[in-house]
Design a protein that fits this description.
L-amino peptidase D-ALA esterase/amidase, six-stranded mixed sheet, 385 residues, 10 helices, alpha+beta, homodimer, 2 domains
Chain lengths: 385, 385
């Protein structure tokens, strides 16, 4: 049910030939109210796609009627023609739904630089077809229509005390969100005003999607949107709602990690003993972005030296010669010197944990990443659609 | 002849079993004077190997009698035992050469965390054997003894107006120098004082080794040393000497790039139209470290969208929608929109050029990198020696 699990939402996913495979490629999610509240966070990449430029304006008033999403083309760096395509998409949806174009969010994903006249025609057709097919159980179709190199659709729901959260996500490559991430649509029938929805969304993405760094490459099209229908009539307890939203977002982030292009290990890099949470995040991310570390994990090699070489490039507060490093529960490095033999570590399972104790403070954070594999290189050297 | 090309130097390279292959693994270069001037720059990684910690102290007075280098073990994060190994190495060389231990530089390269009692014994034996075999034409042996995953030894010489520069280098992985790089020994018989030698060395490394970023992974053991014998008796023209040093360092950097682990393309990322040289370097490096771009080049795919997505993550001054991007002379993106068809670009040659015009100013810089290949992943997932 995904985004249609909460009351007050309809969705659809249709195929219009943007994908050469013929699979669904345009999705629409409509908020039937009574509230039409929305919040969204966007990629912090300065190279932003046209739908991001559009949606940043559209979200400003905190009102969202619907969101149109397409796979099969990022509509990024496609010039003013590309921006007009996004604008026309919003106009088309608004006309059919009898609402204002300024309350329509647009998301695109696919190859950067693709967005010609054929693309525009297909997206507009898809928008029309999807809106004609909207239904209260269309969430699963919508989730499938936003997939690109994803092998499975990603969805999550949470049932609260009288209210519900539903969500869908896509993302398999260019997966290193900053401030926002990937394409994600979250819906809820809880009663929230725009400022509250925005605060909850930013808080949840900060500790979920923004802790995922699969391949160090930040996208131009990342967008996470929260649509609020208020159809349950229930004003949720703020802490309970935020916890639920964090759970939904973390659940989706883990699904994204598990389906990352070519990956053979899902790696949780847990950094403890940091002076600040920011330090812990910086240290974890330096390891998540180190190709030698990532290639070693692919080879089932618990190469702790590469961990120390990576964290030594950060500005975080710690003494490199005080640090402990453990792989899958075995401490291989203690206070900057070898500890247990590396043969004691079994890295054959897909789930991999690296624990880094900086011995400098009480803050911590976990960064989620993947290994660097032959398949990652292959998929991204051949990928052009 | 390499480091023994200038007058006043002797060198040797010997095999003592640090490498499982039985190839040479300990090198010594001795300055026979009359000057005993030295300068060195080191990795800016805060995780520094024991030989770096030692050599930083030893270079402080600008006097260097000799340098001892070993492959087959980085002696990094090996505790106080590892530092004592470096200290004993300097003591041993000093005793045999009848000089002060504080004037001996030490370099190590190989697996981080390796440096046990066997390692120490072999390094000390190698130091003794190499010093017993010093000769005025031992430069080539020394260059071979510092190789790790290098497939060829890297050397360079320059003949100036009455003076000569010789140099050797190693480095094939963990190749993203910051302020210094890899193991490099440069010798000259020109007459230079310590401050002048230091200034020339820093100026030359800044625009040569520090523009090389093969795999984004900064080493714990990088060291570039310049040894000055003054044996020619000639005080060089400062500009001529600096230009020569830049040429030697750039020549070595290109050799390092050409032999980078698993690479199938040598990529020059030329950034022009930047407001500052620092901006140009930051922009070039963001592309050099982008795995999706690097995998695309491996697949002969001129994916300019990934270039723009990479540079959009920087803080450099430019408008992402004004940028031009060319591959091998074909402009694929003009002012943030598609230009020539990507089919016009032939990426089958190993030499690859990417030109990024930021349209923001007059500064420029070129960053040298490699593609991300199956072989890179394979070599670094299996590499443990």
């Amino acid at each position: 049910m995904t985004v249609t699990a909460p009351q007050g939402f309809e969705a659809a996913g249709v195929a219009v030939g943007l994908k050469s495979t013929g699979k669904p490629d345009v999705a629409v999610v409509v908020n039937r109210g009574p509230l039409k509240v929305g919040a969204a966070v966007f990629t912090s990449n300065r190279a932003k796609a046209n739908p991001i430029l559009w949606s940043q304006q559209a979200i400003a008033d905190g009102t969202v009627e619907a969101i149109v999403l397409n796979s099969g083309g990022a509509n990024c760096f496609t010039g003013s023609f590309g921006f007009q395509t996004t604008h026309q998409t919003a106009e088309k949806a608004a006309e059919l739904l009898d609402v204002s174009p300024g309350d329509i969010l647009v998301c695109s994903t696919g190859l950067i630089g693709s967005g010609d006249e054929t693309f525009r025609a297909k997206v507009l057709t898809g928008t029309e077809t999807a809106i004609a097919g909207l239904s209260a159980d269309g969430g699963d179709d919508a989730a499938r229509a936003i997939m690109t190199t994803d092998t499975v659709s990603k969805t999550s729901t949470y049932t609260g005390d009288g209210w519900t959260i539903g969500a869908m996500a896509k993302g398999a490559g260019m997966l290193a969100p900053g401030l926002a991430t990937m394409l994600v649509v979250i819906t809820t029938d809880a009663v929230l005003d725009a400022a509250t929805a925005d605060a909850h969304l930013r808080a949840a993405t900060r500790v979920s999607f923004n802790r995922l760094d699969s391949d160090g490459c930040m996208s131009t099209n990342d967008q996470v949107s929260l649509l609020v229908s208020g159809a349950s009539g229930v004003v949720p307890d703020p802490d309970a709602f935020r916890s639920a939203l964090v759970e939904v977002c973390t659940n989706l982030a883990v699904q994204l990690q598990a389906d990352a292009e070519g990956a053979s290990h899902d790696i949780a890099i847990q950094v403890v003993g940091a002076v600040t949470e920011d330090d812990a995040v910086e240290v974890g991310r330096s390891v998540a972005r180190n190709n030698l570390f990532k290639a070693a994990i692919f080879g089932n090699d618990p190469n702790w030296g590469r961990v120390l070489a990576a964290i030594g490039t950060t500005q975080a507060t710690f003494d490199p010669y005080a640090v402990d490093v453990s792989f899958n529960g075995v401490r291989l490095c203690s206070a900057g010197a070898p500890d247990r033999p590396r043969e004691e570590v079994d890295l054959t399972p897909r789930a991999t944990s690296v624990l880094i104790d900086l011995k400098a403070g009480d803050a911590s954070a976990t960064i989620y990443t993947n290994d660097l594999t032959h398949d990652y290189v292959h998929e991204n050297s051949a990928y052009s659609s």
